[in-house]
Each structure stands twice: as structure tokens, then as C-alpha cells.
């Protein structure tokens, strides 16, 4: 029978476990394991103290210090050794569970627990003081590692296979529970330097890493630290690089040096060469895209979308985790505010990439802020009342006071703020400086509207207002979107324009190369092809990260829906008409709040995709806002901003948007049916004077959008009825002004187009004379060719706009003729029509023949038909038979033969016979009126100068005195002038129709003169008849 093994004592079992954990021995050659270190000196000391050579809890720290302090051949460096101790302690802990004796099991579990705590404690000590213990591995190494050994352990905890590349470090991974024990120490001071270095290492691991690089493990490592370990979150916001400080800190410095900056820098978007990230997304995904299969491009889009969504989600989790902790919330909001304030110049047209953060950072920040806004973007926007408009001025966090306001001037803003802050009253000197700044401010719509720094925040007066998070988040998001997403839209549009310009130039250069090859042209072509490749890659990067991200656009639409509903709430809600005076809360809001909303709607409307974000998005609130404010200069001063609202509506025209949902916005929307046509006509007039030095040319593009919209609305019966009512009720008001500017534009555009056609034909003749052309220097030929293509573009644009305007005159005059026939308008209309008729069927018509007129939008037959239609429509509505006389009085263009020539052309092209006949009859009436006018003029004889209008030199019929210059003019003449210019033509003082003073005394004298001349003529006629009778 075998003898039973004697049971080991607790001390012996403890010694065995601790030797296995710490790989040390107090007895030489006790173990065969080469990793075990013999602590000879320690053993001698223990023996001298009369103790057994057994490892115990009491000796443990002493043993560990001796092991770490000694230099033993082949021994592990301190951190790997201590980590191994922790791992082995975990393994021993598992084995202990099999011990049946519960007392013994409990004792040994306590031993293992103490061993783990000691290993973790000395890990902290070592990492906090790296030189305390010798590192045999790195002691003689020139390339001593500076990366925290905690980094690979954190990466092993968050490793995501298949995404973001390989892990840093490698190795067996992190023992379970190690990080929890390491970071859960309540002593932040001991952890702070360790965490400081760790955060710097995490930041460094994503520096200049693109969306295709390894950013996910560092980001998720950061997320692990701030979500699981409160001490780590506090250490992060206390880090000196949390918000870099200093005189030279700008937006780019914050992006590249703050702890979070490089994480936000990760992007698929292009950046300045100095800050370019790797791998290059454009090169890797979209090089030579024109030769790639569409499926490959779509695959790249999908890849980028996946990695960017992962980035967005984790960035938002990091920020949200910091915001949810009371001791890190304030620092986090301060960081966001500092990023916004230091990058305010990103709103400029030209952005300095060395002083501003990248577009990539601000797109990422835009997404994160939108995600933070989600809780208060519910369908009913129930929390909008928690947004305080005075945050714009009283917040000490965001610098919003330098932004252009919707309507208020700087002085009005200051006065409004001072009502809530009686202790701050502007001195006379402050007011003088303020007025001086307004007077010298550059730009048409920055003058007088900038919310100057004079409008100091409340805190500067000793009062600090605390705003709720919803309010702060709302205004921060509005600024971030302005500097980020909306700015990216602008950059994208410019990128497409640059790409289009390069492609057009390349096409021209290749044509020139075929005609006159040269080495310089070859170099220019190669350079342009390289530029086009770069632009194409950049465009596809924007498409991948922004334009194809429908979820991002939907979130942005939700935010701006809140924005417009909130703004409307400041004026009393969605109701018309608006109050006569604009509330200051609305007037003082930054202009970009509205402009950004419009830019987003325009961009979203142009997406031709089955997943267009507008398909399922409620647009009624946006429609209400546009109708309410687009013709309200008392609320939104900037006419360019109001015209952008028309651009939005233009995008929503059903046949253009491709979205059947938008039809209801025009055809079944209450405010639309009641106010849309009226407001469009009013804006058409308002846009004549924008205050900009480019206003003359700007108005044509703006009115083009209005005209397209009006043309669509004319086909909607309810809107056509509204149009007719406006023309009837406001015949001498807004409608007459609209008609006047429509005629002005038509004359200018058609005249400009026809003259440019003549110039183009001269250039064409030069180029077709091959012999003479080849003799010219190459540079001259290039310049003339460029001029030719430039003229082509001008003609195409001007002719398109002219066709639009003439078309509108044609279809409106059919049902609304009365305003055309008013005394102040009829002669101008007749002169316009006569001039167009002269150009189209007069002696010059052959000179206007083009080989391909359709290329230039020049359709002379259709144009002639429309001109004749206008003649006929007005003749039908001419109840007082004044139109023929107006036609014949036009001394510049009227010729009775033009009517015959035009009728012949109309018959040849198959025009309706009834229309042709009515036109011919009108020509006959005009001829008769001309003859009658000649007789009348002969009868009047010499007219006294005082009876002649000083502007037209025609006999006045209704003389009026101008109140300022005291000059008498004919009422229809001055009324016609006032339609375009509200000034006295003789001294430029302000003048309106109601200021005209009837000159009744002069009018009576003129009428008496006419009667006397008629009687005189009649008497001469009788005497002549008597003489003839006597002679017979």
C-alpha cells in the first residue's frame, strides 16, 4: 500500500505560488527554468534575520524591489516582467479554485490578489519614473523606445480585425483586468504623467493618417480610456495639449497639436501638401477614374463611407462621454468653442491653409455636432424654446459678435443689448468710432451690419449668464456647419468650376494644337491634363465623404429645419403679412444662419439620386420661411440672400427637381398660393439696386431664376389667377415696376446679343481666311481664338436670358395688357417692339445669319413670332386706340414697311393666319396714326419752348412741377423715369410720384394754344375752300 504524500504547509504552498508568479528563487539552482532569477543577496539577508528561505506576502515587496533593482543577465525589462507577473498571477488564481479546502483556497486567493496589486502598483511606479529601475534591454540601446508600453495593451483590448491596418506593438495581449486595476487608482497625481504620455502617444499614432490608415485602434483606445476610466477623462482635459495656448496658436495649430485635433483631422478630403495624410485617398481610390469601371468607383465610395461612419461614431462617443461627466463637461465645451473661434476665418472666400484647420476636421466636427443635436431635433421641435437668441451677444464662449446681422445695424445691436444692461451706455466717443467704422466698412452688405465688438458680452460688466446645453449646442453647431459643411459645399462648387474650366481650356488648346502645333501648347496640354487628374480625384473624394452621405445631409436638413422654425418664432410664427417692424431678436441674428440653410437646400435639391434626402423630408417649413422673407427687405436686408431663396424654389420646380413631392409645395401650399407670385414680382423689382458694384450684371442671373419660376407658375391656374389679380389691383404699383424692368432687360440683352453676333461673325471671317490667318503670329491667333470662344459664351448666355424675357412678355400680355398701355408705359413698349422688329426683319437681318444659330440659343423665327404676338395682344386690349399712335411716334425704329416684311416671314413659317391679319391691320392703323400725327404737328406750327417737355422735347399734355428743382415736365415722361430711378433727373434729389405738383396754369395755356392753333388751321381751311369756290 502506497504511503500518502504529506500535505504541504500553507507557507510552502504560498512560496511555490509566489515563485511561479514572480520567477524568483531564494535557493540557488532550485529551478531549471532559465527565466527564474536567484536573489542571492536577498537570501543572505533573510537568513541573517533568522527567517526561512520561503517567499511570503510579508517579504513580497522587498523581493520585488530587489528583482527590479538588480541587473541579472537575460532578465526581462521591468514593464514586461511586471505584466508577466500579473498574467501568471491570473493563471495561478484559476488553479486555486480547484483547492478543496476552502480555508486554504481563501488564503491562497488572498496571496494572488496581493501579488496582482503589487505588480500593478510597480507598473505605475515604473511608468511614472522610468529611470527608477534598470532596463537591461534598453540600457545600451541608441533607439530607446519612447512609446508607452500601455499602448499595445490598449490596442489589444480594442483591436478590430480587418479595419484600419495592423495593431501597434503586437505580443500576447493584455491580461484580463490589468487595465482596470491600473487606471482605477484614486490617486490622479500618480497616474497623471502616465496618462499624459499615453494621450500623446495616441495622438501621435494618428498624426497625418488618412481615412484609409490605421486610425481606428488609437481612436477606440482613446474612447476606452475616457468611457471606462474617470481618471483618464480628467487627465485628458487637464493635459496642456487639450487646448494649446500661446500667442501664435491658430486653427491649424489646434488641429495638429491638441490631443483630439489629429483624430478630427482623419479624412478622405484633400488637404494642403504640408499636412497631407497617408495613404493618399485620391491616388489609392480614384486615380485615372475615367478609365475605371463604375463598379470600382462605387466600391471605393462604399469603403470610404464605412470607415468614415466608424470615425464619426467613435468621435461622437468620445465627445459625448466627456460632456456627460460633470468634471470634464466645461473643458469639453471650451475646447469646441476654441476650435470654432480660432477658425473663424474659414468663412472667408480665400482660406489660409496654414492658419486654419482642414476641411476634413470641420466636416468631422460638423457630423459630431449634428449627432449631439439629435435629442432636440424631434419632428415637433419641442425643445426649441430653450434656445435663447441673446446667446449671440451675451455668451463669453463663442465670438459671434463680429458676424453680419440679418438686418440690424451695429448701433442698433448695441442699443438693444444695452436695454438689458443699463450699466453699459455708449459714450459719445464710442458712438463716433462706431459710425466711422460703419461709414468706412468695405462691402455692400457688411456696411452697418457687423455686430461689432462694442456689443460686449454681459460678463464684461460683471454678470455671467449660464446657458443650458441645448442652447450652447445649437449655436455651436450653427457655427461649425458654417465653417465646415457649408464651406465644403462652396469648395466643392469651386472645384467643379475649376475642373470644368480646365476641361474647356484643354479642349480649346487641343483645337489650337491641331491648327498650329507648338512645343509650348504641348506643355500647356500636359499641365492641364495633370491638373484635371488632380481635380477629378479631389472631386471624387468630396463625393465619397459628403455628397454620397445621405444620412449626413438629412441630419443637416433637420438642424436647419429647427433653425428656420426657431427664427420664424422670433417674429411671431408662420403667418402673413409680417409685422411692419422687425423684432430686434430676429434682426440681430447672424445672416449666415439663413444663408447656410439655403445653400444646403440648393445642394440637396441638385442630387440626382434615388436616395435624395429631400424625398422623405418635410419641406413645408422651409417653403413658409422662403415665402415670408424673400420679398421682405425690412427683415432681411441683403438682396443676394433673398435671391438665394428664389434659387431654392427654382430647384424645387417639379420638372427640374425630379421630385414629384415638390409639386405640392407650389400647387397646394396655402402661403404659396396667396403670396408667392406677389413676392417674386416684388423681388424682381428690388434686385435692380443691390448696392454692389456688380449689381448691373448680378441682376440678370437673379432675374433669370425668378423668370423661370414665374414661367412655371403661369401654367398653374391658381397662380395665374393670383397674377391677374395683382396686375389689376397694383397696376400702377409693383406690377408696373416689374414690367418696366422686364422691358429694360429685354432691350439690353437682345441688343447686346445681336451686336455680339456681328462681332463674332467678323472674328469668324478672320479665322476662315486661312492664308491670312496662318500669316499671323501664333500668340495673336491664340488670343483671337480665346476671344472668339469668350464671345460665343456671352452670346449664348445673353440670348438665353433675352429669350426668357421676351417669352414672358408674350405670354403675360395675352391676358394682362392694361399695364402695357398706360400713358407712362405705352410708348416705351412700342419703341421696344419696333426696335426688335427692325433687327429681325430690317436691312440688317442678313448680317445676323449664323451657320448654327441654335448653338447660341438664337431662334429668330420664334423670336419674331413672340414679338408679333405681343403687338397683337396689346392691340386686342387697346380699347382707347392709343397703341397705333405710340407705335408711329417712335422716330428711331418705326417703319411701316417692317410690318409688311414681318407678315411675309410669318406666312412663310406657317404662323396662324388670324394673328398675321391682326398684325397687318395694326400696321395699317399705325400708318394712319403717323399720317394724322404729321397733320397735327403741321397744324400746331412752332410750339413755344415753355410748352415742350425738357426731357423729350415733345408737347406736354399733363405738365407737373418737380418739387426740388422746380422744373416743369410732362407727367408720363417723369413717371417713366421714376419707374427706374426715384430721383429728380435735374438735381438727383429724392422724388416719388406723389410728390409731383400739377401745373394747372400751364396746362390750361397749352390746351388754349392747341385750341387756337386748331381754330386757326380750321379757318385757313375754310378760306382755302372759299377761294376754290370763287375760282370755279
Automatic annotation (TrEMBL):
Pfam families: U-box, Ufd2P_core. GO terms for molecular function: ubiquitin-ubiquitin ligase activity. Pathway: Protein modification; protein ubiquitination. InterPro entries: Ub_conjug_fac_E4_core, UBE4, Ubox_domain, Znf_RING/FYVE/PHD. Transmembrane segments: none annotated. It catalyses: S-ubiquitinyl-[E2 ubiquitin-conjugating enzyme]-L-cysteine + [acceptor protein]-L-lysine = [E2 ubiquitin-conjugating enzyme]-L-cysteine + N(6)-ubiquitinyl-[acceptor protein]-L-lysine. The keyword Cytoplasm applies. Residues 518-545 form a coiled coil. Residues 942-1016 form the U-box domain. It is an enzyme of class 2 (transferase). Keywords: Coiled coil, Cytoplasm, Nucleus, Transferase, Ubl conjugation pathway. GO terms for cellular component: cytoplasm; nucleus; ubiquitin ligase complex. CDD domains: RING-Ubox_UBE4A. Its main location: cytoplasm. It comes from the Eukaryota. Belongs to the ubiquitin conjugation factor E4 family. This is RING-type E3 ubiquitin transferase. It comes from Nelumbo nucifera.
